[in-house]
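Protocol step 4 of 6: structure prediction from sequence.
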Amino acid sequence: MRSFSFLTKMTIFGILLSTLPVLFIGIFSYVTSSSEIQKDVNKGKYQLLVQINANVDQILTTVNHTLNQVINSNVLKQTMSSPLNVSDFSLYGNLRDELLHMQSFDTKLEDVVLINNRHNWMIKNSGLYRFDQYPYHDQLNGLLESKEETSWAMNPSAWFYSEESTGNARCEYNISLIKKLPVTERNPYGLIMANIPTCSLQALLQQDARKSDTTLVLDDKYRILLHPDPSVIGKKVSELGFDGELRLNESSGQFRSLLHNQEYSVTYYKSPTNGWIYMSITSIASLTKESKKIGIYTLAVCLFMLLVTMLLAWLGSRRMYSPIQMLLKQMNVGTPEIRQTRKNEFQAIGEQIQQLFQSKSRLESELQQHLKQVRTLFLAKALQGQVKNNDLTEQLERFGYIEQLGAWDVMAVITVQIDSLEGTRYGKPDTELLLFAIHNMLEELIPAANRLGAVTIDHTVVTLIGSASSKDSDFKTALFPLTEQLQQQIQSLLELTISIGISLPFDSVSQIPLAYQEGLEALKHRLKLGEGIVMQYENVNQGKHYFNIRYPNHLENDLIDAIKLADKEKAKELLHCFLVPVFSAEMSPQEYQLPLVRLLNSLLVVQQESGISLNQIRQGKGSLFEELLKLNTVKEIEDWLWSRVVCPMIQIFMDRQDAQYHNISEKIIDLIHNHYDTDLSLEDCAAKLNYNANYLSSVFRKETNTSFSEYLAAYRFSMAKKWLRETDTPVKDIASRLCYNNPQNFIRSFRKLEGITPGQYREKHVAT
């Protein structure tokens, strides 16, 4: 079977991989857009229904307020207590004026009916009637006998027109506000009705021009109050084939329902005022019609994207395959050879680099050995106080001791020394081997979780032991048997007598050097107590730490470095930091002189090693040490050290640096002037001057306020302008002499700098 190359496989895979997201994006965008269209339509329908409800409620509220004003008027109260005979013509006229005043364009009222069952009369727009002789007496009397005092109801328009004018009704139904009268009596005997024709409110529905959308209003009994088709007003909504009545029980909502065997989206809103239901019914088919347009557009875009991604997959595969092809060429492995051996490209490359992985394993093994040696060296320096306190914790964590340091609450240093080799089977040349054996036995006996790595310093095996116990007494109780067991095992296996010193317990790693000195101090008591002892420093020096203060070596080193670098601010800060721990210790005045004399001596040694004579920083014949010892306050000592020793040394180093920087900058500038027409670089200058390139860069920038590359480019342009003014050398030759790859790059750079081309520059200066 033929084996395809990785180029072919990557191309096929890229095409397949690019097709899937394009199809997914296309389908997702189509589904999402369709869903968003439906959501937007439903949201718009809901807002429309809320608006229609607000408009209708405004009219109904206005009608209710107006009717209440009529009910509370004196004319109506007087009329309700009157039989309205022929003699009451004036009273009837006043009442008619009140009722007609209600019927305005804003209220949509077309008739106000007033019925008095006790006095058997009825008033409406067409006149005064005897109630018992009215054709719809029974229907209207039924409204009077209802239990509700006030209600909105839909009634046939024929109830409110006399027989001779029944055809005058514009709408088949009226929406009536019915109130019983008098309102103050328990048994009302009359009622007043404000009638609004349903077709008067139809304009408020804001019906969509599309036939697929229908807006209607239902009363609380699901009867149709408003509908674009007047013939269905008054019917139950279920008679239209709507099957979603049971879903209209919330204050608002949206759902899908069947209507005439077609699926519709139904949005409804229930009025909080009177319980009427405002509905919008939209055909799902009309919504999907818009989605189809989006689908066609999405399909076209996806097809275009597929073609583009296929092209990119082919080009990208060739680009990604080029490094593989280059590797094969470098290893002299041809494609025919790969096909003959039925291997793929990576198998062929893998065989060639397998030896590299083997070399890597050997290097890692050697690195682990070196890492162990570095860790041992670091622990030895930490015990001897040669590591800064700021770096101590960080370095211990870096070497893998983070778990121990986090778990320990108390620590101690133990020191182990061989007492003597006399009377044993060992000789002096065996000392190093015996210390190595003791080192291994100590690490085997004490679990790694309870100690740091053991180190050998000056024929002493030292390790740091820690415990999670917060009580020093518990830690000491556990530590002493451990050291005795170690002593016994060495005696049993090596037939050697050893002594062990134990420091005082401490809780901070910054006290490691102090604890190491305490362990060594405890071992010195072998002179009195004899060999083979396990001595705790607690029994020495009254149980107090051996050192009241440690000389701050690291601060002294930092101060000397700052002086050599001529950094005044840092040197002054470090001098103050050095003196703070010195004077904070509880010592006698004579003891304070020791670290101060030691510091002054170190500064004078640096001065002598740097070739600075004492006369350069001091005028006079007296001794600096005598002057220092005569000072009595901390402020005087700090000011004297700064003004008489540190500051003069900084000034000398600063003058040296300025002279050195100036000399180096002059040499670099001379190299630029002599070799500007070559491929001169900062690395070339560093090699010729025997300096580091980064150092030269910082020195040159400090002296000239510009970088090496900027100065070189500026000088080359100055030479180019000189040649353009004074010679006829072609522009391409000038560009070549200035080490440009092609003349166009030179012309672009020249135009960017001067604003004109080299040719224009030459013409301008030749003309002048």
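Step 5 (inspection) to follow. The chain has a mean pLDDT of 79.
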